[in-house]
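Summary of Year 1 activities. Much of the first year was spent building the evaluation harness for sequence design. The harness presents a backbone, in tokenized form, and records the residue chosen at every position. We chose the following record to illustrate the format because it has been used consistently in internal testing since the harness was completed.
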């Protein structure tokens, strides 16, 4: 009898503690115009100076580009999700920096994640959990739909750019690839570089559920930011 009473008390306490766990949340400013930024990273460029990062131990990757994140932005600045420090604990890179963050609901059991997650950067440190808590929670999408859309588009862009791996290229080559393989993104692709190496490729999209049409640059041409005339898409840090 006493054992049963003890189990009931234990269950009640556990239930109460669980119910008090603060879920990640985000407050959007309704007065600000919103859009999305789909950001793809070049892992080999990142790993040239971050060799100790667990994601830098294995090359080649599925593609020269991987998903960093799908970020709800304002036209200036961005909203940021909130998570109680007791629920979102950073730990050492070796143990997986964000692996104590809450799991995005239903993500890991979904077909979408199982079939597309090779295009996600930083899985070794659970970067997807950080991206959901900081950015995804600010979108109107549920976790599976959020990552499905982001990873499908990351896959398509990555595959289009794979032919440029380990080559010295310029604007003409990138423009030709986009026009031929990603015609809907013509004028909306933007690059960023670290030295001669491309560090990221990103696209802005109209706000919606799901994200809407790609947003072209003001000049209507693909943007090359701080990249030099000739640049490089490395497939490994040694390239």
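For this record, the design step produced the sequence shown next.
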């Amino acid at each position: 009898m006493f054992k049963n009473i003890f189990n009931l008390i234990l269950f009640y306490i556990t239930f109460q503690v669980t119910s008090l766990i603060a879920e990640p949340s985000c407050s959007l400013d309704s007065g600000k115009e919103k859009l999305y930024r789909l950001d793809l990273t070049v892992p080999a460029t990142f790993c040239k100076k971050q060799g100790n990062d667990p994601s830098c131990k294995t090359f080649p990757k599925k593609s020269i580009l991987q998903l960093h994140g799908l970020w709800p932005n304002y036209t200036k600045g961005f909203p940021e999700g909130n998570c109680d420090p007791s629920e979102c604990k950073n730990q050492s890179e070796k143990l997986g920096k964000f692996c104590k963050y809450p799991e995005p609901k239903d993500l890991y059991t979904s077909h979408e994640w199982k079939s597309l997650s090779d295009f996600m950067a930083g899985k070794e440190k659970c970067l997807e959990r950080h991206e959901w808590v900081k950015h995804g929670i600010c979108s109107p999408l549920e976790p599976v739909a959020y990552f499905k859309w982001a990873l499908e588009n990351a896959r398509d862009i990555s595959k289009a750019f794979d032919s440029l791996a380990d080559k010295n290229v310029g604007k003409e080559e990138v423009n030709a690839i986009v026009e031929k393989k990603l015609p809907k993104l013509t004028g909306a692709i933007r690059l960023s570089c670290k030295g001669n190496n491309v560090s990221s490729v990103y696209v802005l999209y109209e706000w919606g559920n799901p994200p809407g049409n790609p947003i072209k640059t003001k000049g209507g041409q693909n943007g090359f930011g701080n990249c030099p005339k000739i640049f490089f898409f490395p497939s490994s840090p040694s390239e």
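Residues 107 and 113 are 6 Å apart (CA to CA). Quantitative recovery figures across the full test set are reported in Table 2.
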